């Protein structure tokens, strides 16, 4: 009796496991600030000549403001500064492993520096600060009265990073080498505020374009030579006008460029920026411009695409200052897992939608992103 032939078993669909992330896979370097938030009274604002709703850089008359804020009012502390915010949001979106994101920057050897280290650790970011005693830790006071916020930033130590005293040290450079994605924001404005243009010109970005351009170039060159992804954020449009020489030294290394523009010819600008000369030909540059509540624009080698942001109940919006940093953080959280660019943008939009419903660049315990 002939053996009956078995019916062929249906082929199992091959489901690719998500890429297992390792510690220190994402690296960021920038101006760290300790955000100090408190509900204050009119007398406090008057004492330091603060408007209820304003953004300024600290002057001599504000020296005692930060300590008095802590002594007189109930304060909340958060690890802040633009790049650190994005790195923090990326780690929050990633969740596991802890310390998937690394951050380098400069702080003072003082009480605020210790608090900043603690807050970065609570966010599960692997922060390694260059600690020096010439300048105090950079801070940003967020003085709340009703629905108004008066912000005062003191960059101080944030502008004192030294490549040879930190980045070049073997134990630190080893962390740089572990990363597959690198992120730097070359603007001086802390995301707790968009400071007025005149103040920006008086206090140019000390971190990347005047104090430590060699740090940025060393990281950029390493990424290019090892075919890893180097990303850059040009948050303030004035940078391309006033620091063109420094910027153009870095631009050939940029694989993904983030920006925040709101001009009519934004698609053309994105297209031209994408086509600028590039060192690593294995990766074509991608340019991404956010426009607040307007479409996000992405330019690749072949096309320019617009992506609608998430619908948002305007009454739920509390604070939009951290939206740009949150978008980048969400984007990077998917990029390190090799997700498609469309998914990276979706994550960016999600993260921004969460942050704008809260005060400062803060978030709930876990994301709800699927």
TrEMBL record:
GO terms for biological process: AMP salvage; purine nucleobase metabolic process; purine ribonucleoside salvage. It catalyses: adenosine + ATP = AMP + ADP + H(+). It holds the Pfam family PfkB. Pathway: Purine metabolism; AMP biosynthesis via salvage pathway; AMP from adenosine: step 1/1. It is an enzyme of class 2 (transferase). Its cofactor is Mg(2+). One of its GO terms (cellular component) is nucleus. Residues 45-364 form the Carbohydrate kinase PfkB domain. GO terms for molecular function: adenosine kinase activity; ATP binding; metal ion binding. The active site is at 325 (proton acceptor). Its main location: nucleus. It is found in: Nucleus. PROSITE patterns: PFKB_KINASES_2 (PS00584). Binds 3 Mg(2+) ions per subunit. SUPFAM superfamilies: Ribokinase-like (SSF53613). Keywords: ATP-binding, Kinase, Magnesium, Metal-binding, Nucleotide-binding, Nucleus, Phosphoprotein, Purine salvage, Transferase. Its EC number is 2.7.1.20. PANTHER family: ADENOSINE KINASE. ATP dependent phosphorylation of adenosine and other related nucleoside analogs to monophosphate derivatives. Monomer. Belongs to the carbohydrate kinase PfkB family. This is Adenosine kinase. It comes from Lynx canadensis. The gene is ADK.
